[in-house]
Amino acid sequence: MKRYQFPLTLLSLLGVLLGCLISMPSTVDACKCRRPDMKKVYARSTHVFTGILRAVNTSAMRVHTFTFQVTRSFKGSAKGTFTIHSPGHSCGLKTGAITRIGTEYLVLGSSRGGKVWSRQCRGVGPTNRASVKAAIALFGKMPAPATKKPQSIRSLIMACRHIGPGIGPRGLFTFDFQSKKPQLLSTISFGKKGWGQGAQRISNVRIAGNGNISLKLPSRSGRSGTDVQIYFRGQSSQLKGKKYHGKVLIFMMRYPIPPNVRIAPRRLVCSKIQL
Fold first, then answer.
1. What are 196-227's pLDDT values in tens digits?
2. Are residues 68 and 124 in the same domain?
3. What is the DSSP string of 238-253?
4. pLDDT per position as a tens digit, 236-247
5. Which of 141, 108, 115, 101 is nearest to 33 (CA)?
6. Could you tell me the residue range of the domain that residue 121 belongs to?
7. How many independent structural domains does the chain possess?
């Protein structure tokens, strides 16, 4: 009987330990958030608003989407019906009981990957909560964020050369945007044909937030022409190889393209001389 005493004792100890582990409260799924500094959270957020919760949906990727009817916007472009995304883990909004349809909440979120995301630790909560009321009063006193002035470019002079298969232009391109009739002045050469000069009307000039430029070079009839995209920091994904990363790239594509016809854009790599 004595030789079985040790194993029985060991089994008893294991049973006690297992019982303790089962009885311990689960803290793995608990989201531990410190009380946020609402000024800092406001500064880091791209969208701050109050809104009435209209719907909550869950995707297969454990991402919850919350649809709000915006009642007041403090920062960002939230208006009308606005969607917020939140992770499905313990710090998500759904775990934080942001699920009462018809309840008005204060929401703070940040843009990422073309979507606006939020979580519990941002101070999201119902507007009738004392801490949320204090945050709303604070945000109401904050100055409106400065809006970026649209960029403007008077002229652009670049020395460019054709890259890729076939024969293409090389030479000096001057994009004049400040005249009443913007135009492209070019001194170019196509292989052995020699040098020539030309002028072409410019229309539909658009400057993106990253500084890239898109424009059209319409024909005299206006029914056809060339679409032009100017990338000031060409990415390696736009052309095979990394040697063009950071270079000025121009893509030119004729329009309209006939049905069932595939046309590759004409590509130029340039050195920016003046902007």
1. 888 888 988 888 766 788 889 998 887 888 99
2. yes
3. TSSSSTTTTSEEEEEE
4. 445 555 566 667
5. 108
6. 38-141
7. 2
